[in-house]
């Protein structure tokens, strides 16, 4: 065992690094096409400059999507470089959705920085999100081949699912009860669809047939659901030093995430006590809620765990991970690509942030 | 002269009617793909249902864009029907931008009805706008040909210009002075780009080469600028009974529209008095401004006219109309299509609402 890499994630980390290295310059070139005021807002959002326009080196995220798009091209027998426009387009769509979602959700922080609507106002968050979305479609279609047109069509369909997922997420906030199936459907749209698209898009650009692209999308969809299950676990029990979020982050936001809905759906005294607390919580204003001390959130987290919400979600992450890898089983791919897709999937379910 | 049609717009009105008749069912079919909560919001926006979900027959707008998209297909020698996906895609993009712009601008009314953000909240205006944009890309790419991919690329480029135009419009609100050239550039992006796209998209789908598509886009771009110049005139001097807007509508919103910037740019006492008034106006809050009585707006309108802003804009509409038609001059088009494009252009500069 390598002590610097206790979970053996060296391969996955190298793939993420390659994705960043190849996609980042192309992403900057694409964003450079935006006109000045919007360009600055976009550069702030991506962490390239601070609120005063000074260059920064902010955390640019895990970059799972670009890594996937490049591997996807290799799965079709093309070079990783062939997947770059796909990686860029998917990143643009992802960031369009972050800009709009942060505004709709009223989230003031993302990756330890003030969100765009907070710094530059709501109109800029809407405009720049719209511009990134249009840019994504332009970038992918510039290939000018029948394959890039197919890729663009899949990208547009995934984008619409992303919007569906956000609409469901918002609707759930106003509902007292959300089922596990509904939560999974929402997460499949909000997270699964774009990871699916990333996993298929490189192959489509590389000329793969629909069968290979569909199988890769299935892998990406379930990888997205595994990713989201882990995210939901980290949102409650994650180490703030690693995640950069507050303790019990999702509980503070009263998010009906997987561990919560699974616990509520369980039977027994813990589920009943939890449900009673959450029902009372729902009647509070956000200010009253923010006055809660740590112990209140710790109580809810303990009840979720006692009712089985934590272990169910851990199990669900493993199930989705398994289903993701099963989708690759019968595929004809160049040697090594399957191992790399597996390494990436393993990383997603074991990450700590 | 036909007394029922004093301006001889029968041909143009028939083209608009045909555009509506062919595009409306396809538009409804496309919008029907949205999931229930967003579908209702979209149906409200399009005027198909009221705020309580009851079917209505609201004014669906002039529908110049669909009419253009169909004529565009005919210009390439295809049937009008070939342009329908283009008409639908352009209408979806247009309405995506209306949903977002109304929210950013805080506009509470559109076509005599409360705007979506006012009825369904800001998040729905953002979400449904995003969904319509994604749907537009899906609809146009469904053709699955090399031509529809080219059409989608032009649509994405036009959409980004639309966003640029809105960004400029918002930036101008916070500036004391806007030049005529800047105003024309903004209007070229905000109105010209999508009319250009509508005028070219049918031809592209129909298999036209880039030369014909570009010429049709040039026609559409200048038609858009003529359209906007007329809109800017109606925004100040339009008959409220015809336009459905308040008297001096654009002046109430302190819009730096063409007649205003042209008047301010002129020399002489009227321009100077106008500039002094507008500079003082800019320091007022919106509430103080709304307390103005009719005479205050009438004074500003009279000064704009005296400084030559009205006649300059009328002249500009004629110039753009002329440039639009000139773009058609050397084109090889089926007999009758040129006459119809001309009739539509004539209608645009003579309309009263």
UniProtKB/TrEMBL annotation, chains A, B:
Alphabetically ordered keywords of this record: Magnesium, Metal-binding, Transferase
InterPro entries (alphabetical): Isoprenoid_synthase_dom_sf, Polyprenyl_synt, Polyprenyl_synt_CS
Keyword Iron-sulfur: no
Entry GO MF terms: metal ion binding; prenyltransferase activity
A Pfam family it matches: polyprenyl_synt
Domain of life: Bacteria
GO BP field: isoprenoid biosynthetic process
SUPFAM superfamilies: Terpenoid synthases
Family: Belongs to the FPP/GGPP synthase family.
The name this protein goes by in its record: Polyprenyl synthetase family protein
Originating species: Streptomyces hainanensis
């Amino acid at each position: 065992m390598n002590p610097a890499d206790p979970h053996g994630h060296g391969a996955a980390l190298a793939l993420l690094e390659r994705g960043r290295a190849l996609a980042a310059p192309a992403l900057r070139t694409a964003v450079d096409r935006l006109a000045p005021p919007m360009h600055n807002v976009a550069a702030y959002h991506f962490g390239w400059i601070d609120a005063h326009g000074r260059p920064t080196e902010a955390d640019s995220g895990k970059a799972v999507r670009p890594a996937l798009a490049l591997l996807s091209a290799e799965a079709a027998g093309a070079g990783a470089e062939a997947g770059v426009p796909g990686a860029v387009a998917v990143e643009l769509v992802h960031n369009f959705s972050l800009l709009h979602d942060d505004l709709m959700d009223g989230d003031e922080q993302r990756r330890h920085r003030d969100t765009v609507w907070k710094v530059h106002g709501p109109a800029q968050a809407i405009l720049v999100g719209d511009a990134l979305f249009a840019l994504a479609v332009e970038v992918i279609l510039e290939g000018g081949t029948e394959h890039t047109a197919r890729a663009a069509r899949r990208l547009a369909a995934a984008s619409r699912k992303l919007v569906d997922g956000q609409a469901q997420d918002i609707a759930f906030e106003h509902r007292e009860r959300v089922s596990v199936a509904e939560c999974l459907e929402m997460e499949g749209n909000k997270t699964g669809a774009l990871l699916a698209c990333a996993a298929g898009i490189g192959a489509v650009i590389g000329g793969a047939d629909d069968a290979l692209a569909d199988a890769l999308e299935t892998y990406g969809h379930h990888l997205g659901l595994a990713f989201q299950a882990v995210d939901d676990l980290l949102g409650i029990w994650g180490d703030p030093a690693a995640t950069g979020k507050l303790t019990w982050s999702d509980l503070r936001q009263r998010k009906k995430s997987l561990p919560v809905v699974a616990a509520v759906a369980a039977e027994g005294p813990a589920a009943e006590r939890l449900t009673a607390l959450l029902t009372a919580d729902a009647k509070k204003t956000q200010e009253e809620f923010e006055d809660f001390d740590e112990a209140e959130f710790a109580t809810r987290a303990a009840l979720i765990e006692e009712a089985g919400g934590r272990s169910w979600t851990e199990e669900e992450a493993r199930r989705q991970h398994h289903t993701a890898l099963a989708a690759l089983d019968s595929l004809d791919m160049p040697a090594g690509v399957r191992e790399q897709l597996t390494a990436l999937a393993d990383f997603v379910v074991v990450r700590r942030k």
